[in-house]
């Protein structure tokens, strides 16, 4: 594949990957995210419900955590993982660990790594790892890697080992890859390890660059094992070393503010698991990424709730003595967020109004939404927001109905993909700073 | 013979229900009809999937529409508890709340109370029970049930009946039958929306032919747009079951729809169409899907079982549903323990199976070959005549179909 940069400003890259995939027929925009799957499915979604979402990105992200246990099945199937999961025409990227599941550490060895699937731990030797890749036939996969999260203050020796092992695994993977008829059109992604030690990170980057890899994965940054500042510095330093003309992936980064920090530091592709995590909590992504509009005006417009929707008799009877304008100005939404009903005293709340900004998502299990017939996010063009209401989602969550997961996933994926589009737009317009400020304001 | 039912003249616009008989099987009692309801016109015989709590278990509206579903069910008991009729009324009825534009049928809540609630007490007033959610004492009377169903705004509402398990015998059955008639009259009186919502009666009487006949004769006198045959989908012997169905369709007026409640196994559908029923509902196909069971013309596949791990065929090679077009049994097996999408795939297939079955039935009635259809269906399902269930053989024989 080829990478075409349309702009490179202060380390922020904006462009396109072309001639991607085993057939060299696909292209994708960067920065971008991947379509997160579990056992080859976007969680809760069938082909038809996935197709209700606009802007679904390539590639599809599969993990060995959720699929390695089916190696024998795929070997007998012979037609590749894409067709098996019902996505025969998609670009497939295969990684090792599932970002949304725990990955206990302490099991990797000099010759093996472990992944954690539905049936427990699966130990992978190099030959098993490559056998799986040959049965799966992905378009991209990253080489076997010792990237298990290391506790803070891990010994230099252990970190050094993770770099050495991973380089060793890379070389062995390449050997098999280059001799494999089935994999010859696929790309191997090199994996950069190094824990929290800058020197090791740089060593890993420089060595990996020497090999014929299609791109680079910044690994081992998923955990809580280092400060944000250190993490971001390491990312900057690593991407600073890497060649400009190959894509940089990162695992474990999903929150909007973190994504933007990484984009500013030369990262191109992100995993798409964050919307799934939000869905599983019964929440809908609601953060504003429209940097082109005056954010304060947008905020008031989308949050002011018409009086008749305010829950609770006491509240609405108090409100009738206050004008609609007064309510909007005093950001009456703050009261609703605080305690859905029963608080009569508006005036005491007015001073709080500039305190809390909304978080990245709204919790639809909150009783305030019980009779809120507005869409999840006002103005959102997704299938869920065009056809269903907060009240309906509240009901589905309360009654434990399966449709809740389906609808939330549709909205959350749509919202997240649209966010990435806004990143690309902001880069094109030279306004990444505005987008960053807008997002930072909404972090709680 | 009973006196003809009083006719109510409708002077102005169309009644909220009309039934036009398109074809009648010359051998059995099956008929192909066009049923026009306020939100949707559809053809019968029809199978209605059950969307208990205002949702069809993980299936989005466009998926359901694409499968050709024109009518589905909501449950008054569940929806009456959560979110409650006031909220649904605010949402423009159940149609507005779940954003379903086609037809809806709601049951009265009676069956759930008997099947789900441990200490329900039935009096002439109604059914008294404690809410499973907050322990509050609730009385579900005919008036209350209709009030909730009026708020739900369904195309078809069911009367509140005094439901008694089909395995019960003795004076309780007779008491329930007469009470159901009285409750029917109270439901008719309580209906605030007769121009837009159709109230169906439910014939009771257990497995006692005389009680059933009494109930039929009385209920038919009321001016209502349709009739359901109730009290027959419990654990009763199939041998008694079909005789009561046959008796009912003998007495029920030809020009009104007959709804057999709680029936949904494929064989039961085919036989009861032959016995003269038009509408059916059952949780079975959607519920069994969530246990990994896929319905096929020769039975069912338990996709959780290891034998499917490397089975690369679709559920049914002849099925054209979205699941069978794209996914193998092996993939569904692999996905089942991992993600809810597996349940959705199988649910979609099972609904498609049921709706396609009904479509084939309708087509064969239209083409005057329903008896041949029955033969083929039974052969495919059971393999050989010695495996045919006895009750089905007898029932079909009663409507002039001799299984070969």
What labels describe this entry?
heterodimer; A: 444 residues; alpha/beta; 9-stranded parallel β-sheet; 3-stranded antiparallel β-sheet; 18 helices; 16 strands; 16% strand; B: 404 residues; 8-stranded parallel β-sheet; 16 helices; 41% helix
Structure commentary:
The complex is a heterodimer of chains A (444) and B (404). With 444 residues, chain A is of the alpha/beta class. Chain A is 39% helix and 16% strand. In chain A, helix 16 (390-398) crosses helix 17 (402-429). The two termini of chain A are 40 Å apart. Chain B is 41% helix and 17% strand. In chain B, strands 4-14-13-12-11-10-6-5 form an eight-stranded parallel β-sheet. In chain B, strand 2 and strand 3 form a beta hairpin. Chain B is globular, with a radius of gyration of 21 Å. In chain B, 53% of the residues are buried. The model of chain B is unreliable at 7-13 (pLDDT under 50). The interface between A and B is large, with 43 and 43 residues.
In round numbers, the mean pLDDT of chain B is 93
Total beta-strand segments of chain A? 16
**Lateral strand order in the biggest sheet of chain B:** 4-14-13-12-11-10-6-5
Mean pLDDT of chain A: 86
**What is the β-strand count of chain B?**
16
Question: C-alpha Rg of chain A, in Å?
Answer: 24 Å
* General shape of chain A: globular
Biggest sheet layout of chain B = 8 strands, parallel
Residue fraction in strands of chain A: 15-25%
Question: Which structural category fits the helices and strands of chain B?
Answer: alpha/beta
Q: Strand-residue fraction of chain B?
A: 15-25%
Largest sheet of chain A: 9 strands, parallel
Number of helices in the DSSP assignment of chain B: 16
Strand arrangement across the biggest beta sheet of chain A: 4-14-13-12-11-10-7-6-5
In short:
The complex is a heterodimer of chains A (444) and B (404). Chain A has 444 residues and is of the alpha/beta class.
Secondary-structure blueprint of this entry?
The complex is a heterodimer of chains A (444) and B (404).
Chain A: E1 2-9, E2 12-20, E3 26-30, E4 32-33, E5 35-36, H1 47-50, E6 60-63, H2 64-67, H3 71-77, H4 81-84, E7 92-95, E8 112-117, E9 120-125, H5 126-136, E10 140-142, H6 156-178, E11 187-192, H7 198-209, E12 215-218, H8 228-241, E13 248-250, H9 256-263, E14 269-270, H10 274-280, E15 283-285, H11 295-303, H12 313-319, H13 324-329, H14 333-338, E16 361-363, H15 383-387, H16 390-398, H17 402-429, H18 432-441
Parallel strand pairs in A: 4-14, 5-6, 6-7, 7-10, 10-11, 11-12, 12-13, 13-14
Antiparallel strand pairs in A: 1-2, 2-3, 8-9, 15-16
Chain B: E1 18-24, E2 31-36, E3 41-44, E4 46-48, H1 61-66, E5 71-75, H2 76-81, H3 85-90, H4 93-98, E6 103-107, H5 110-116, E7 121-122, E8 127-130, E9 137-140, H6 142-152, E10 156-158, H7 171-190, E11 198-203, H8 209-220, E12 226-229, H9 238-251, E13 258-260, H10 266-274, E14 279-281, H11 284-289, E15 293-296, E16 299-302, H12 322-326, H13 329-336, H14 341-366, H15 370-382, H16 390-398
